[in-house]
Amino acid sequence: MGYEAYDRYAAEYDAWFIKNANVLETEAALVARTLENAGKVLSIGCGSGLFEMIMQKRYGISVSCGIEPSVSMAEIAGKRGMEVTIGTAEEVCAPELEGRFDTLLFNGCPCYINDLQKAFDNTSRFLRSGGRAVVIDIPKESSYALLYNLAKTLGTWDHPMLQGVCPPNPYPIEFVAMANWRTTEEKVECLRRSGYSDFRFMQTLTRVPLHSDSSVEEPSEGCDRGSYVAITATFNR
């Protein structure tokens, strides 16, 4: 999978979140809840460092190290104070990072990782003994993913089938076209095969996409109704 869209439209990524401020705050609240007592965190697919900046400024949670395949995104994250290693989760080789982290954060990136199993296998080397992974993404079974997959199939948000259904400011179609959403169970199984166990779940964005930006939503336990779901699992080295 290429990352040309993120290199070309890096600024649009942040701009979308700014237009959907309540969605941003809702997702950030979920990330912050999962990073309580997280220790030293490595953000896999950190993108522009937007969420990491929010974690520091609003929640006092430091996430200063990241891995990101898009050079344009990494440059923005660097300007926000992050130390970013360029590379994909599947292939990145950074001996200096091995065994240094208590938590691996995969926030919003699993759907853009081509080989998720290989990514979990490869990045586990960065964890200390007893470390954990926090995997947050849109589940394929959720209302958001169903809507996104329809837009992806149609190739546009401007279609009669989506009138009155999609949010006022939908996610850029360039990013939708690149994504491969997986079910929660698929992600759990990949983690399990990589040596993770003790799975816990939290969710948010429980409203339909049309109304999800109407107010900020607090995260809740479970994975049965949210369009943004966090899986936390412990690595058994």
From TrEMBL:
The record's section on InterPro entries has: SAM-dependent_MTases_sf
Keyword Transferase assigned? yes
Which is a GO BP term held by this UniProt record? methylation
Which Pfam family, any one of them, does this sequence belong to?
A: Methyltransf_23
- Transferase as UniProt keyword: yes
Top-level taxonomic group: Bacteria
Q: What is this protein called?
A: Class I SAM-dependent methyltransferase
